[in-house]
Amino acid sequence: MDLKLSGKVAIVTGASRGIGRAIAQTLAAEGMKLTLAARSKDQLDAFASSLETDCLVQAVDLRMPDTPAAVVDATIKKFGVIDLLVNNAGATKRGDFFELTDEDWADGFALKFFGAMRLSRASWKHLMASRGTIVNIIGIGGRTGSAEFAIGGSVNAAFRLFTKALADRGVKDGVRVNAINPGFIKTERLETRLKTFADENKVPLSQAETQMAKATGVARFGEPSEVANAVAFLASPVSAYCHGSLLDIDGGQTRTL
User: pTM here?
Assistant: First the structure.
């Protein structure tokens, strides 16, 4: 299926690894030009050189208040347009609620929520001009509370509401806004958790993955490419009537309405 993305321009945050990297690879394969944003310049440079598309590397810390606008300005300077913003950057600290500090909470919101908010604000007028799209990568932790994921769940829940609020504004301004809630996806972060699970339960890593998936209530863990394919769909005119959609990609883990 032709998703009609060729020649269009996307900003992808958290693009150096994991889900963000897979998203950038998929969009590049669809013919999109890319701004790749993350903190690691070496990783971004190596990744950009492997893609057969025009890339702008932005090795930045999106927690800094002025950085998102600078990324948008650099993208406009190079490409002249923004058709898609993928807000993917952001990790939050897990742990016991009473051991999490104010700084942990502030850091959790600084990148994933405020970084995305500022990028959305800075790119909005350009997305209006292109009749463009925002896709937020959030997570199912914002739907089901977990004692160990108090920060992440709170950030994700706020991000879900933010998506709906932007979508409401987007009806008037002609900007489509949707979000994806990944479940357990096989990234470096999940691999670290699997190794810990294997060590604690004294089982091989392959067995740990099977046991952990079963304990989570899914048949298997997801692949980054499965999230990336959904981003390409939501970014394309093929999904033109999707607006304010919150798509769970979690293997059936979320069983609530």
Answer: 0.96
